[in-house]
């Protein structure tokens, strides 16, 4: 993946992510050239282009995706710098910035894909989970485009999007497989039984993995966003400097719990303060990361073995963690499991992954009505059916 970056006057980072594995020519990037005799009845054989929109947190994003796996354009407008000074995402600032930036993202996504709204087959959007005000911007935008153009509307679950990011660079990946989803709000171990069909076999009892990274980073003075900062600091530290607890949950062996680990880090910080000792930030970061990563990898490998799957994917913001990627790769190789992971830029929030997930919904005939609403706590696998058109 190649990333063109431009920092705008307000501090927002505008990015265009180019899939360097795309081999399409530039003139007809969007479509196969139509032949004279081509009728609308032959549309089944045609490429399906989806305009996808994402605004669940602090990234405004739009993308054009062909046949679920080929990214023609992928635009992200990241507000991260604006929220950093507050130590976390401020929902109202996020919503207001989405309103300002979204049209520009969509315009750029269409123009980079060299298509117009006429060429698009469906409009897809993340409708949950996420920050409600932020989600509503994308949902309203998608509904407006669907209404104005008469094109089908498809609502996508944000986490299904993260999982589907794996399809973009791994053209051979097909369900069933196990996926470890680790983001700022979720830690789920799922079996992807088919496209859009998920069985959750484990989830967090308290903090999500990303949340734990963010809280610990704040506590040791690394600031926001915690995950990437701990990842970087950990490279300089000793992972065996501290022995942090790795919670085991008796009645649910695939569930996660990170709050005990977080408290243990806080205790070490307080103890050091009381004894007037200085903690080596990098050692705490490395030891904490090791504890989280070992639990995540251990659960995922065990699930593959016990459920009998030989394909394992990772997804979500924490999936870009270098320690997690390294250990997972090593353990997968040792256990004859094929390991799939998106490029780091596709692990964070983007619209290409929403377009990938939407394609399989589109093929199944899922269509949402214009009564679609944002669902901030939308559960994975139990999708909100009441917005489906005609239901
Ligand atoms: O998937 P994501 O972009 O947003 C949600 O859907 O939540 O995930 C954001 C989370 C944050 O908690 C961030 O600290 C974490 O992913 N993260 C990382 C890394 N990069 C982002 N955690 C660990 N290591 C990283 N390199
Ligand atoms: Zn996300």
Plain-language structure description:
The protein is of the alpha/beta class. The chain is built from eleven helices and twelve strands. It has helices spanning 80-84, 91-112, 132-149, 158-169, 209-219, 226-234, 259-274, 281-307, 322-334, 344-347, 352-364, and strands at 2-7, 13-18, 49-54, 59-66, 70-78, 122-128, 153-157, 177-182, 187-194, 197-203, 311-315, 338-340. A seven-stranded mixed sheet has the order 1-2-5-4-3-6-7, with helices on both faces. It has a five-stranded mixed sheet with strand order 10-9-8-11-12, with helices on both faces. It binds 5'-O-[(R)-(carboxyoxy)(hydroxy)phosphoryl]adenosine and zinc ion (ZN).
Please outline the helices and strands:
Layout lengths: L1 E6 L5 E6 L30 E6 L4 E8 L3 E9 L1 H5 L6 H22 L9 E7 L3 H18 L3 E5 H12 L7 E6 L4 E8 L2 E7 L5 H11 L6 H9 L24 H16 L6 H27 L3 E5 L6 H13 L3 E3 L3 H4 L4 H13 L27
Parallel strand pairs: 3-6, 6-7, 8-11, 11-12
Antiparallel strand pairs: 1-2, 2-5, 3-4, 4-5, 8-9, 9-10
Concise overview:
The chain is α/β, with parallel strands linked by helices and 391 residues long.
- Give, in order, the helices and strands: EEEEEHHEHEHEEEHHHHEHEHH
Which compounds are bound in this model?
Answer: 5'-O-[(R)-(carboxyoxy)(hydroxy)phosphoryl]adenosine, zinc ion
This entry's quaternary arrangement is single chain
Q: Indicate the proportion of strand residues.
A: 15-25%
Output the number of helix runs. 11
Main β-sheet, spatial strand arrangement: 1-2-5-4-3-6-7
Q: What is the mean predicted local confidence, pLDDT?
A: 91
User: Rg to the nearest angstrom?
Assistant: 21 Å
Helix content: 25-40%
Largest sheet: 7 strands, mixed
In terms of per-residue confidence, which ranges show pLDDT below 50 for 5 or more consecutive residues? Answer: 33-44
Helix- and strand-based class?
A: alpha/beta
* Number of separate strands: 12
Shape, please?
Answer: globular
Q: In whole angstroms, how far apart are the ends? A: 40 Å
